Amino acid sequence: MVGVRDVNTIPPPEKLYPPTVQPPERALPLPRFIARFIRNPLQALPRAVYTEPVVTYGSKRPLVTWVTDPALIERILLKDVEHFPKTPLDRRVLTPMLGNGILTAEGESWRWQRKIASPMFRYAEILAYVPAMVEATEQLLDTWKQRGHAFTTDVEDAMTETTFSVIARTVLAGIDETEASAVKHAARTYLDRISWEVAAAILRLPPTMWHPGKANMRTSAKEVRTIVERLLAQRRAQPGSGNDLVARLISARDPATGEQMSDATIVDNLATFLFAGHETTAKALTWTLYLLARAPQWQDRLRDEVRHALRTSQRVSPGTIERLPLTLRVLKESLRLYPPAPVMTRLANQDLDLAGTHVPRGSLIVIPIFVLHRHQRLWDDPGRFDPDRFLPENEAKYPRTQFMPFGFGPRICIGSSFALIEATAILATLLQGARFEWDGRHAPEPVSRVTLRPKGGMPLIVKPL
Which of this chain's residues are annotated to bind heme (predicted)? Predict the structure, then answer.
């Protein structure tokens, strides 16, 4: 194609070391540990977590056991999964908003819910949503073009709006603009103070104990669930309408009893997909755009790849996705440096040994994915942005639990394929219509609030093309 450069002949860009957190050299005393944890949980992890396979915190009985060894992670999440269930911490923190849905349920309830939802997230089904993903992104580009030649905007907000619009057009059709705005605001409010609740759970303080923002969290959770209950009632009043997740949950039957899924369980799952279905992809795209703004040569290479992949078409289509390997590599490197869900937790339900470290029954095990993806023993120059880590010949060398932005094992994120396809379609469409530049000042600290936020938002200079 005329005007398209050969991306393989472009010299490699200069080395980029994007912002991260600076861990304390040693484990902090408990009061300082909790204070840092509440500000940003990632700031509380000592440097040893980045260099050792297992690190415990606590003198007599560990409050936390951090695990970053891929073989041990595979044992926890797959091989001995029955000995490492979901934690009371997860349920305490997430249940007010998400109830007993697919993210928090255990046992047969979880298996049934997963089985019902799985068909919606098959690869072929997701590809059918690409036009809706592109349409939502083109609407954003249209608003940007109306603003003029170049302007600064918070792309975190823009990506949240776009990914929520995608969810509302695809797996959860029917939510109106006012309700969508309320859900986004409530979700943000809920996450703002969530580290207080997590810290209280780690200290094993009672769930009824007050902390700053607790009342706002409860109000936000109730608001989201009320909106979802109203959405469900509207759909029940229109039987047989649609083939989205709402319709499938309404028609689902328990294979053992033939019973329908209760309204409470349907609401739990709809809230889960509304909450998780847009938030994680939005954060992935936010960090990716920042990296491309800091590494403009990579941005140019991706834009050239998109133009070449489109051939004679003007829009990204389902068939375009598989013709964007460089875009996928960049997304994976972004997910390595800034995993949207930076932490996983599990509970040891028996005394056990992890790489010579005794872990008592009832211990909280934390898999800090943010640290795993930057571990000194696992990655060469881990703080550097380098999409070539994910060339096929390089990626094949990594243990499967060394890079796991969507988790691993039977409880791997059900929406992982949806997220990657959505991120690819949105990113490719954005690069067709705009250039992103860094302002030369903002260095966003990654902050863990269930998802990985950029502190201070993500202001970038946008130049419509």
Answer: 413
